[in-house]
Please model this.
Amino acid sequence: MPAADMAPLIASVRSRLQEELPTHLGATAVVVQAIEPLAGGACQDNLRVDLVVTGGPEEGERRLVLRADAPSALAGSLDRRAEYAVIAAAREAGVRTPRARFLMEGALARPGWAYLLDFVGGTAVGRQVLDRPELAAARAALASELAVQLSLIHTVTAGAGPGVLPIPGAAADPAFEALGFLDRRLDAIEEPFVALELITRWLRRHAPLDSGERVLVHGDFRVGNFMVAPAGLTAVLDWEFAHYGAPEEDVAWIAVRDWRFGKVDRPVGGFADRAPFHAAYSAASGRSLDPARVHWWEVFGNARWAAGCLDQAERYRSGPQKDLELLAIGRRGIEMAWEAMRLIDRGPP
Model:
């Protein structure tokens, strides 16, 4: 959210947190010292909240993150209430993701849900993750660390975890569901996008047969949604696109061209090749990966993000969010379509 739009809300958020958090924290009093928008987060609003807690088990200075529904949503994304439940299930499975607390409605003086996350150190900014010299050792171990986390995510199924997760996909064929989503996005685009229509035709003709697996899919497992510090991976973030689906969808999504942040010669997030990442995932999960299926999901991932880029620009054009970042993202749709066609031409490894 632009800083100018946040200014009128800061006082309201401060007042509400100071009133409600003492009960949640078992404290005598809570003083909010600062509330600042965090960089990134083109889909949701994320605010750093610095507190001083008096009394109770969490007494002292504390830093949290308030994550709230944005005024408009990207197609296919969960609201914060559903995301809150997904985080609980992921943590139960052992995934390294911050604890979510204090689910609330209307936190930013508008309709929508929000919660507070424990603050985790490191950086999630893609170019910093890939370029900072002090993160060199972390980058070297990142493929194996992420493979382990992804294997833990994929242990959560519709029949397991703390209760029924309010997310889609449990009963659907993953590829069929994915193609339906892409069709709906193309139908919503006012101008024809011939490249995406051709890519979608290829995806339909080559869709993998249903494997029977339905696991929790993060849905946006890529550089930019991981916190990385010199010591290594500190957290997996941003669960708003979580759903039940094929594990290969997450395995392939991290290799979508946009998530390499210019390091195009290293297809997995700009820091690794596909083969070692796939091998580490198979070792951690006990699941063999079919290269043809992963290739199909990588083509789909680039097509999905091409449509997503156009959706982001549409949020700027027709919605309440006049954030230039949304407009800038829109131009990348053609780059993602080009990558999908390049992958089709190359074929699976």
Remarks:
- Residues 291-318 form the longest helix (28 residues).
- The CA atoms of residues 30 and 53 lie 5 Å apart.
- The two ends are 41 Å apart (CA to CA).
- The chain has eleven helices and nine strands.
